[in-house]
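Colleagues,

For the teaching module next term, I've prepared a clean inverse folding example: a structure given as tokens, and then the sequence designed for it. I'd like students to try predicting residues themselves before seeing the answer, so please don't circulate the second half yet.
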């Protein structure tokens, strides 16, 4: 059999005997003895792994499998630091904001496209068709480990082309490569689950409902990037990051409206975070009375050093209410993006979701830039020498590792927990901006409001964890 772990948590594989037999596949031409052996093995396997099925014969996962895996939190940490650097990189690029947003999404779409091709290949078993067309001599040269992961390998070629000696040798190598019977059982158990997942993906992938949700989610993501990247030119990096990561407040409100289970601690934590945002807003209301002209000079992305494509680091933007409001609107957009993602990502593989959404958002921002911005830069100007390094950095780290990492774990971790974790992005991103030189030190009220935001973040995270623990015990 072939088994490939999707980042989405879905594993695409075709089992050696159980799934093909239970679904009455006609492409298996084993002898009667082999069929009898497979039947006996299946009965023993079901007893050993204690598979639970519903009335329709579908596999029911144990509650233990629903626990949040450790790797999800590890990805969350890496994604947090990658995304924290996004604002610094964007402020370093000398281009109009909407154009920068489109470049960020275009370059990320290029990376995601390869992941999409990979997942579609595995879902529709195109890899098996490729193997079938390879010459027998070439296939036999492949390492045994690769051969063993293809189910029903003896049917990849005509039976009359294989000698009995070859079959015995392959079976012997197959047994030698199994570390234990337990490992084999676990693989077969995953096969049962993942064959079901693959059929579900095929049936839902091109449904009208799925396409409409992807289209709407892509447009919402485009609005999010448009609001946020423009806010980077209208307010400080610290303020932009603080307000754009305030989505937990809105998420909790949505959960309350939907009457979803939520603890008092989560509500109190989000209230503390909201108080912190209000305190931080005082910088824009009271401390922006002076030097307005110096701040406005850096709004249009025209502070480059010659033709380097890098912004003049001496031009530091002051906080503004307008810029803070734009960032807040970006937070509102991300709420809908997260909920739509959690709906689709329950069954949709990572790149089948991430690529169309990101590509649609890239088209949206590109059109918005062409309509609203006047610039001599080309819509695909990110491939030119002054911009390609920073744009590729945005695609690989904040884009692929950051946002795609978040998409990968959204089926394991609740949206409110992911959003609250992202509240750590403002202090981390602001520190990065100060070290790089694109941002000055945070202003007075930002220092006061920041601890409230971080304290609210910790309270919501801990309260959510406790609530999930209680639900698992019930």
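(Answer key — instructors only)
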């Amino acid at each position: 059999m072939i088994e490939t772990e999707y980042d989405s948590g879905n594993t695409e594989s075709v089992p050696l005997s159980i799934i093909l037999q239970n679904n009455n596949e006609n492409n298996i031409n084993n002898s009667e003895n082999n069929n009898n052996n497979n039947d006996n093995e299946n009965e023993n396997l079901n007893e050993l792994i204690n598979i639970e099925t519903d009335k329709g014969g579908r596999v029911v996962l144990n509650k233990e499998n629903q626990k949040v895996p450790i790797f999800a939190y590890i990805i969350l940490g890496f994604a947090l630091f990658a995304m924290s650097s996004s604002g610094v990189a964007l402020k370093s690029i000398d281009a109009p904001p909407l154009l920068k947003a489109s470049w960020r999404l275009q370059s990320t779409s290029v990376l995601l496209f390869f992941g999409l091709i990979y997942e579609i290949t595995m879902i529709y078993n195109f890899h098996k068709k490729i193997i079938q067309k390879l010459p027998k001599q070439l296939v036999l040269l492949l390492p045994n480990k690769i051969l063993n992961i293809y189910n029903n390998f003896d049917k990849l070629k005509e039976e009359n082309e294989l000698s009995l000696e070859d079959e015995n040798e392959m079976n012997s190598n197959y047994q030698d490569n199994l570390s234990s019977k337990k490992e084999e059982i676990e693989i077969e158990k995953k096969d049962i689950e993942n064959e079901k997942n693959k059929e579900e993906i095929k049936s839902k992938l091109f449904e009208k409902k799925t396409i409409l949700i992807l289209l709407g989610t892509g447009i919402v993501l485009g609005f999010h990037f448009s609001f946020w990247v423009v806010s980077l030119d209208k307010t400080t990096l610290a303020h932009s990051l603080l307000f754009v990561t305030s989505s937990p407040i809105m998420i909790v409100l949505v959960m309350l409206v939907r009457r979803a289970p939520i603890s008092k601690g989560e509500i109190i934590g989000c209230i503390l975070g909201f108080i912190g945002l209000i305190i931080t807003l005082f910088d824009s209301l009271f401390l922006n009375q002076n030097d307005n002209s110096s701040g406005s000079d850096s709004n249009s992305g025209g502070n480059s050093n010659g033709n380097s494509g890098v912004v003049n680091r001496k031009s530091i933007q002051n906080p503004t209410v307008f810029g803070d409001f734009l960032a807040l609107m970006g937070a509102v957009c991300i709420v809908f993006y997260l909920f739509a993602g959690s709906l689709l990502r329950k069954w949709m593989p990572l790149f089948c979701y991430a690529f169309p959404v990101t590509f649609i958002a890239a088209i949206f921002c590109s059109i918005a830039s062409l309509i609203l911005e006047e610039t001599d830069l080309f819509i695909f100007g990110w491939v030119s020498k002054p911009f390609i390094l920073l744009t590729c950095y945005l695609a690989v780290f904040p884009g692929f590792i950051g946002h795609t990492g978040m998409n990968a774990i959204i089926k394991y971790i609740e949206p409110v927990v992911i959003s609250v974790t992202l509240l750590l992005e403002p202090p981390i991103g602001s520190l990065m901006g100060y070290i790089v030189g694109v941002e000055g030190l945070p202003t007075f009220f930002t220092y006061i409001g920041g601890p409230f935001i971080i304290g609210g973040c910790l309270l919501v995270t801990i309260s959510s964890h406790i609530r999930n623990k209680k639900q698992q015990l019930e």
